[in-house]
Amino acid sequence: MTDLTLYHNPSCSKSRGALEILEARGLSPKVVRYLDTPPSAAELQALLVKLGLPARQLLRTGEEAYKSLNLADASLSETQLIAAMVAQPKLIERPILIAGERAIIGRPPERILELLA
Description:
Blueprint: E1 4-8, H1 13-24, E2 30-33, H2 41-51, H3 64-68, H4 78-87, E3 96-99, E4 102-105, H5 113-116
Parallel strand pairs: 1-2
Antiparallel strand pairs: 1-3, 3-4
């Protein structure tokens, strides 16, 4: 099995659920507590490629920072959205499981199983 990395927020029930699913299968992913060690813009860009998503789809739209930074503005570029996530990592959707060159957002947590199949 490819090395696994989990972008994890231990305060999030979905993120904890994803980690439990992995551990129940005997898997020990590298856990990245992204709120403590936020990804750089380059790391986020690479993650988006693995996810196959535009930056907008990685944003947590219910966060206060989303509203206060007016991130719903459709004229904002990928670079601007990525910069907002770097500055405010709470904006990054979670959990995210990375397996090699592929990644998936674990919402619901069972969705991570798609990468393990």
